[in-house]
Design brief:
Number of helices: 10
Strand content: 15-25%
Order of helices and strands: HEEEEHEHEHEHEHEHEHEHEH
Structural class: alpha/beta
Number of strands: 12
Length: 346
């Protein structure tokens, strides 16, 4: 029944995009990333906590690069960020531009550019609540002539992207690229508590749960510590913030909804993950050569259950966000991604 409802919603959004759900702000404005990136806010229907917006960010392949009329372009990318995150991976966007893909990203409700109420940052009650945010971006992309769209998701964004594709099956999405998707918890013995916390989330969704005080992952990324990147630490916090029991329930239900053949994603999937995981709350040099957030064996195990056409690639010395790894890691990674797309006619 849910599949029919989501399918009907997708059709209606395409037929009557201005009358349903999201209303895009007038025009595009320059984005904080500069260099040709633009953004626009999208007003979404109120949810459990009140008003929400999403934000679409884009950069288009220049006409001079294409040598053709812009209307003839059909290929694009839509990127979905992870938890405690927002789109700032400008280098990734530029790589897709160089290869002839119009690049779009979405800052989901209560993240980054879409923050309305700081006290509700990152919170959600059901992963499907993100579907209108994704639908809004897809509708804009298709209005602008894109009919071959690659959906990319990182971490929780990978879970969201896979869940969206498994439930909605938009015709325009031709492939799915998952960068360290959050397909299972990485809590050791504490995972035994997840069913109890999920049940708690049904009745007391605002109950807060600490994620610890480690700053090791942020230190592996930030230029002022041991990384090479700059980003807004009020939007991507150095210490991962507490989550709610309602959020835990939403994540758990989505993860279970993708297992044991329930996903049945029929488009090609590229599953990417680091060669190893690392634990420990204090930064060490190994934190710059491993996934400090998820268990990479779980990513492979559950990623292979997503559909019949899954290509998996283990990225040696990759960070949790693989495109933020060292240059010696991400350069061959980009070459592999574009080779995979060419092999699939994309």
């Amino acid at each position: 029944m849910k599949k029919h409802i989501f399918g009907l919603l997708a059709i209606l959004l395409l037929l009557f995009p201005a009358q349903l759900g999201a209303q895009a702000a007038k025009g595009w404005v320059p984005d904080m990333l500069g260099d040709g990136y633009e953004m626009r806010h999208v007003s979404q229907p109120d949810d459990y906590a009140g008003p929400v917006i999403s934000t679409i960010i884009r950069k288009l392949v220049p006409d001079s690069q294409k040598g053709i009329d812009r209307q003839a372009t059909t290929r694009g990318v839509l990127y979905i960020h992870g938890f405690n995150d927002y789109f700032f991976q400008k280098e990734m966007g530029d790589r897709f531009i160089e290869h002839g893909y119009d690049f779009y990203a979405v800052d989901l409700r209560r993240y980054g550019r879409s923050l309305v109420k700081e006290e509700k940052a990152f919170d959600i009650r059901d992963i499907s609540s993100y579907f209108p945010d994704i639908d809004s971006a897809l509708t804009v992309m298709q209005r602008e002539g894109l009919s071959e769209i690659i959906l990319i998701g990182h971490s929780t964004g990978g879970l969201t992207a896979a869940y969206f594709e498994s439930r909605c099956h938009p015709e325009a999405i031709k492939a799915l690229i998952l960068n360290s998707p959050f397909l299972d918890w990485n809590l050791g013995w504490k995972e035994r508590l997840i069913p109890c916390i999920s049940l708690l989330g049904k009745f007391f969704p605002n109950f807060k749960i600490s994620q610890g005080k480690s700053t090791a992952y942020a230190e592996s990324l930030l230029k002022q510590h041991h990384g090479e990147w700059d980003y807004r630490t009020d939007w991507k916090l150095i210490q991962s913030p507490p989550v709610t029991a309602g959020w835990v329930r939403a994540i758990t239900r989505a993860q279970r909804g993708l297992r044991d053949g329930k996903a049945d994603i029929r488009i090609p999937i590229l599953l990417l993950y680091s060669s190893r995981s690392i634990n420990g709350s204090e930064w060490t040099p190994d934190h710059n050569r491993a996934d400090g957030v998820l268990d990479v064996s779980d990513i492979k195990k559950y990623g292979l259950q997503l559909g019949p056409d899954v290509t998996y690639a283990c990225v040696k010395d990759g960070l949790h966000d693989l495109v933020l790894s060292a240059p010696s890691v991400r350069e061959p990674l980009y070459r592999y991604i574009f080779m995979w797309l060419r092999e699939h006619g994309l």
